[in-house]
Amino acid sequence: MATIRTHYDNLKVARDAPDNVIRAAYKSLSQTFHPDKNPGDEHAARIMALINESYRILSDPQKRREHDAWIAREEAKLRQREAEKMQASPIPPQWKAPQQSTEEEGKFRKYAAAILMWPFSLARRIFLWDPRIAVFGSLIGVAFLYSEFAPKPPPPSGPKPYQQQAPTQPIATAPAAERKPEKCVLINNANGDIKIYRVDWSDGSRTYQSRLEVECSGISTEGQKVAVQRGEENVKYLTAPNGSQWPSKAAYVHGYPVDNADGYSSIKVDNEQNESSVFVKLVSLDGANAYPVRQFYIPGRSSFTLRKVTAGDYDIRYRDLSTGGLARSESFDVHETRTGKGIEYSDITMTLYKVEGGTFETYDLAESEF
């Protein structure tokens, strides 16, 4: 249908625009087409004259009502002419809508189009009301999309350079009596299949074996089974990094030293909120480098308490033995203070993972930091 040009079109505002929007639109257009900014430009002068006239009409409530009434009359005339033209020119059969198109389908398309266009309509109204809000919202949207789809940065490092052993301790390995060149273990996989792995205890490497090959270096798998709950433990982390077996309950891992043990404080590490078992390290931050002083295992739905912990700065680092994921706690202080009544010391509970009511924040951890 043909349209008519209105003063709203000249100011580029909606017909229901409030006074402040009309005033803002007039100021914005004036800054663009004012003769002072376009000396000698007759085209800009004509546009400025139209803008002035449109603002004069729309800024006056009475004149604006008269203009709205004129628009209504003119559009009614246009609709009448269009209807008469349609009656005079019958629609050819091949142009008619298919008979299966129902009134309900038309309503559905209308509502669907309205829903799809609603965000754009809202954004347009906000821009006309206050462009600054629209620009600010667009920046927030771009920032959100960037945070969702941009490559994730590597995990942050700890507060100090990290070394895997205490400065005065040798590399921890399983005692010679426990280590064998290799050994067969049976693993119940998540799908219920039983697979046999050959394990080299010197470096923890594993090789999948056929069910028919039941001996490794003359040692039968019978009596040498390692019980692993179905789907719970990752085969990669079947043993501790030093080759020791995981304890049957929450405890220190055999073969690692238990250092910083001349204090009075205690630290309870709570893994009761999680199904997965974890390998945990208490890391000292007192020296130039961070290093582990205690290394222990906690099954899922369990906890473990470190006792006689020496005063100092520490953090907790742990590996989820189901997924292999690593995490680090924020640093915390274990303190001891002598008073007239004795020694005041720390009694800390650390809840693993970001659970409601957890006692500390956790951070992703790089492999080199564990």
Structural commentary:
- The strands form 5 sheets. Strands 6, 8, 9, 11, 12, 13 and 17 form a 7-stranded antiparallel sheet that branches.
- By secondary structure, this protein is α+β, with helices and mostly antiparallel strands.
- Helix 2 packs antiparallel against helix 3 (42-58) and helix 5 packs across helix 6 (131-149).
- The model is unreliable at 176-194 and 199-233 (pLDDT under 50).
- The protein contains 6 helices and 17 strands.
- 30% of the residues lie in helices and 23% in strands.
Rg over CA atoms:
38 Å
Count of beta strands: 17
Multimeric organization: single chain
How many helices? The count is 6
Order of helices and strands: HHHHHHEEEEEEEEEEEEEEEEE
Based on helices, strands and strand pairing, what is the structural class?
A: alpha+beta
Q: How would you sum up the major sheet?
A: 7 strands, antiparallel
* Shape type: elongated
Instruction: Round the mean pLDDT to the nearest integer and report it.
Output: 77
| Helix proportion | 25-40%
Weakly predicted, low-confidence segments = 176-194, 199-233
The separation of the N and C termini measures: 72 Å
Strand content: 15-25%
Short description:
This protein is of the alpha+beta class. 30% of the residues lie in helices and 23% in strands.
Main attributes of the structure:
single chain, 370 residues, alpha+beta, 7-stranded antiparallel β-sheet, 6 helices, 17 strands
In terms of topology, how is this protein built?
Blueprint: H1 7-11, H2 19-33, H3 42-58, H4 61-88, H5 103-129, H6 131-149, E1 183-188, E2 194-200, E3 205-209, E4 215-216, E5 219-220, E6 251-252, E7 265-270, E8 278-284, E9 291-298, E10 303-309, E11 312-320, E12 326-329, E13 332-334, E14 336-339, E15 342-345, E16 347-351, E17 362-364
Parallel strand pairs: 7-16
Antiparallel strand pairs: 1-2, 2-3, 4-5, 6-9, 7-10, 8-9, 8-11, 11-12, 11-13, 12-17, 14-15
